[in-house]
Every structure is written in structure tokens, then in C-alpha cells.
């Protein structure tokens, strides 16, 4: 399991650095983007692991996103960069891409389906995956932003 | 040292018009590089206080309406400026935020602040090949996170590199963002779908699904929620709508690419 966690953390860090570069995060902050993403993603991995806590993906993502938000707020004064700069790259590895993909696929197949039975099956897939995807997205974003609003004086003085 | 003291240090008193014109330019630049409304509000108020002024702002998705006044005097100026479409840049966001603190803490004169501001706008350039390489590696890592095998990761790397380069070229030709998202998603998904031919027993569906993730408009989504919490509902709704439209263009390109390659969703 340790190997899985390390592999997951490294991939999340690489993804965060790459997406940090797309949103033109200052180069000195790349390392922080990678570190926050690796820790956040590893936290979610552990929270969801059946041998550890076995939490549902929505709750685990919410807790991990909150941790990412906290780390971003308290690292931002050290790195002299706004906390928001770290959020997006660090949260991206937790975006429910496959749920979104399956939901969209279900919708497309609904439109192309020719029988009521097929429509029912694909509509169920669309709704099931779509609801989980939206729940993860809303929970993740709100939980990540809450620390910035809670610790405003720290978050908005980072570039001082 | 208080803000009013630092203003006195600069030794010059500015009219509301001079301050308003600078703050308006600053506001549209900061908003254009994807700053949240709360950051914009704080930075502008910080600098206005340093110049001894009071400011009221009305932030709209395409315009910023600003009124600057001198407390206790009949000196008020209002200006409406258009937000320039600019690439997302946290680097520029950081430097503009630092500038606001320099004005407040070090008592920078308006002329010096303006000079530094113009310099920041000119210096905010990306290094396209570095970004291209890192973005491609990032998307390939995504594929790995979602359970893709090594061949799927390699295919996603190539699909992202080609799609992202196309995005850069189209952006430099000032092509509409929605068209860019559609075309790049189409190209990347066609390349990603080649996994069904090259490695049908591997994880081809993960390769297709992740080949377009580099286009996900995450920052507009995040900023819309931040604005929502700060009760800037119009901006929040506008950013959210922008992000949804871009996601729809992305999905359309992905769907067309999969149709062309005769790849089923399930």
C-alpha cells in the first residue's frame, strides 16, 4: 500500500506542477503546488482506503480539499504568493474526471438510444454519475475556499 | 506607519481623477488575470487609502465601474473601464498584489506605481515550450492517477502535446476561446481514441477520457464559488456560465472525436 500512496502522490505532484504552469503560477511556487497536491491527494487516498477509514468519495474529497485549502493559506505567506494560486493545481487531481466522462457518455447514449429500455439504462448512468460528479465538485470547491475566508488576514497579506 | 502617513511621505497630493484612472487600469488588469472579487476589492481599497482617497466599486463581468472621492471635499471622479481578455496568470496576480502593498507600506508615488504597473504588464510573458512540456506530463500523470497503464499515459502525453500546442497557436492568432476548446478537444480525443487501436486490451477508455482534461476550466469554476461566498453574485454567475460554456465546447469536441473514431462511451 505504501508504494501505491507514493506513486499516487508523485503523479498528483506532477499533475499539479503542470497545471500550475498553465495558470502561470510563479516558478518559485511550483514546488509548493506539487507538495500541497501530493499531501492532499494522499490524504484522500488514505481516507477512502477500506483498510483505513473507507470513507465515501464525496466526504473524503471534502476533507482533503479542506486540508489543501489550509495548507495553501499557511504556505502562501512563506512563498509570497496568493493562496488561490495553489488551489486549482492542487485540486485538479481530485476532479472526478471519470464520473464526468461516464455521465456525459450516458447523456449522449440517451440521445442516440432508440428504445425506452435503453433510454432508461443510459439515463440512470447519466444521473448516477452526474450527481456524484456534481456532489464531489461542489464539496471540493467549497471546502477548499472556506479556509481562505476563515483566515482572511493571513490569506490576503501573503504578498506583503 | 499608517496609510495616511505613507501618503504624506510621497509629498504630493493627487486629484481623484488621477487616482481613479490608475486604479481603474489596475483593476481591469487584475480582474483580467483571474483574480477573485475579494482580492480586487482589498487591493484597490488598500491603495486608495494610501493615496488618501475613498473608493466605491461596482464589478461587472465585462466592466468595472469605479468612483474615487476625497473625503470631506468636493472632488469626486467616476470612470467605467472594460475588462481586457487576458490569459490566466497567477504570476501577474502576485506581482500586482505586491504592488498594492508597496503603495500602502512604502508610500510609492502615483507616478512610480504607474511605472511599475506598466512594467509588470509588459513582463508577464510565458515560456511556451516549458508550459507545453509540463502540461503534457501533467495530463499523462492524470491518466496514471485514474488508473491508466503506461501505453495509455504515453498516448495521453502525445494527445496533450499536440492539442496544447494547437491551443497556443490559435490563442496567438486571437481565435475565439470557445472555438479553441472545441478544436483542441476534438484533436486530442481523436489521438486519445487511437488507444482503442494500439492497446485494445489495456485502458483505452481512460486514455480518451483524460486526453482532454488539460482543457477543464478549473479556475473560472473556483473563482465563481469564491465570488459566490463573497456575495458577488453577478460575477459568480458570469464566471460559472463562462466555465459551463467552455466545458460544453470541450464536450462537443470530445463527442465528435469519439464519433469519428467510432468509439463507444461504454
Any descriptors?
heterodimer, A: 160 residues, mainly alpha, 79% helix, elongated, B: 266 residues, 2 domains, three-stranded antiparallel β-sheet, 3 strands, 67% helix, disordered N terminus
Structural write-up:
The complex is a heterodimer of chains A (160) and B (266). In chain A, 79% of the residues lie in helices and 0% in strands. Chain A is built from seven helices and no strands. With 160 residues, chain A is mainly α. Chain B is mainly α and 266 residues long. In chain B, 67% of the residues lie in helices and 8% in strands. Chain B has a three-stranded antiparallel β-sheet, with helices on one face. In chain B, helix 7 (150-172) packs parallel to helix 10. Chain B is elongated and about 75 Å long. Chain B starts with a helix and ends in a 6-residue tail after the last helix.
Blueprint of the fold:
The complex is a heterodimer of chains A (about 160) and B (about 270).
Chain A: H1 2-22, H2 30-48, H3 57-79, H4 84-91, H5 97-112, H6 116-150, H7 152-155
Chain B: H1 3-10, H2 16-32, H3 37-50, E1 54-59, E2 63-69, E3 76-82, H4 90-106, H5 110-123, H6 128-145, H7 150-172, H8 177-193, H9 195-198, H10 204-210, H11 218-229, H12 233-260
Antiparallel strand pairs in B: 1-2, 2-3
